[in-house]
Structures are given as C-alpha cells and as structure tokens.
Give the backbone structure.
Amino acid sequence: MIFWPLLILAFVSVKTMAEQMLPSRGLVYSQQQLLSHIKTLASDDFSGRETATRGNEKARVYIIDALKQLDVAPLGQTYRHSFSYKGDADGANVIGFIPGTEFPQQYIVLSAHFDHIGQDARVIYNGADDNASGTAALLSIAEQVKQAPLRYSLILLFTDGEEVGLVGAHAFIRSYQELIVKIKLNINLDMIAGDRKTKKLRFISKDMDTLLDDRALKMWAALRQSGEIPVKKGFRSGVGNISRSKSVVNNRIRWRAASDHYVFYKADIPFIYFGVGTHKNYHTGRDDFNGINQEFYLAATASICRQIYLLDRLMLN
C-alpha cells in the first residue's frame, strides 16, 4: 500500500531544499524591463529581424547596447561574432560573458536566437514569441546574474541565423573549439511566451544524469513543479503552422533538432531546451507583442531563471 502522507512529506522536503539553494534576495531583475525588451524587439521598427537585413542588424545593436548598460563583458574582444554561410551570406551572433565565482573556467551556455523570418509585401513577421521572447529573457537573466553571480561562468549566446539552419550556433561551435570540453551545459530558450491561450512551459533535455546525481534530479523536478506555471517534460507533435516549422519529418517536429540546442547535442554537450511548442500564431503576422500571454511569459522567465540557479548549485564538478 502506498503511504501518501510520507510521499507528500518527502516531496515537500525536497522542494524546500531546492528553494533554499536559490538567491537569498530572490529574483531582482526588472519585469517591466523584460516586457519592454520583448515589445521593442518585436516592433515593426526591426522589420522581422531576418538575417542579413537592416532590421536584423538593428536588433543586434539593441542587444549589444543592453549588455553594455548591464556592464556585461563580451566573451572575446567584441560582442559581435561574425560568420558566413551559403558562400556569400553573412550573419553575426552576439556573445556576452559573466565570470563564475567558483569555476570560472567551466561554462554554462545560455542561448536564444534573435533572428526571425522578416517581411513580405503585405506582412511584417515580428516574431514576438519566436524568438524575441527568448532574447529578452536572456537580457533579464543577465541582469539577474550580474547582481547574483553563478558558480560557473555564464556565456550569453544570442544566435543569428537560426531560422536558416542553425547557422549561428554552428559558427559558435566552430569558432570556440577550445571551449567545447569546458562547457557543462547548454540551456536554450526558443518561444517561451506562447500565444494568449498558452498555459504550460515545456522542456526536453539530454544527458542531465551526467551532471546531476539522483538527489539533485529530484530537487530539479520538485522546483519545476513548485512555480506559478506548470513545467512539463516533452512537446506535442505540432500544432499551428508546422508547414513552415523547423525540423518537420512526416508532419511531425523533431524537437531535439528544432532549435540551436541541437548543435550542442551533436557536440556531445548536455542540453535543456525550454519552449511552448508551436501555436496558431507561429510564423504568422499574428506573432506580435499583443499576441503573447504576458503573465505567462513573466512566470516562464522567472521559472527558467530559478532553475538556472539551482542547476548551477547542483551540478557535479
């Protein structure tokens, strides 16, 4: 017979231990600034942020200026990480760096792509959820980590060219081969705001059991269940406009290959991918700031930020 009171007590105990590992001051980044970031990046002024366009460059400058205001250093000499693809096309990632307090030579890579699909004669595809949401969240998490640093160094990777084949993430891996063995984990954010009806944040992961022992895995699971919104493992097979979706095979999305985390997976780096899956606004003109669930987005970003802190504390060195 299952003795439910003992199971409940055990869960509460694990949850309490997990919460005790979070920053003592709580989350101190500005939620208003988070919403301002996503609203700005998803405005018509950026013309859909398509790679190798003026709107894309304007988004890149916005991200760099925001990092400078936060006093976040570049990973190298400059924030801009330029690359070429398809022979004559050019793009550029933006990379920031916040050193860790205990393991400065080991890294967590937090990634989100800032490019989208641009515009046509009739519509500007503003990409609020895809992926101004992840980009803005990275900026707010950077604000948080600057004030309460992690044990491991944090690389903030704003990728370009995700929509044209993950080319920015591939370029990062090619350019930073010396860092590969020192990267503990990639956490990728792609579409974390949803549409107005979105209620669940979803994730997939790979090889987390190489970083966390059984107790730590239970604490991570308990924290995922303790926030304002559900955080569910796995994605639905696909809804909305999947004809233009990433990694569609037989009308199903291969979520492991659906965004930049796939490049880290191929490099044998453990990853977590947070998102909401596709929805009716995906890759349409309706994916704008007014189409997202703002309360959900604030809660999703907070949940991810708390999980980053917990994982930073729990990862085996």
Notes: The mean pLDDT is 92.
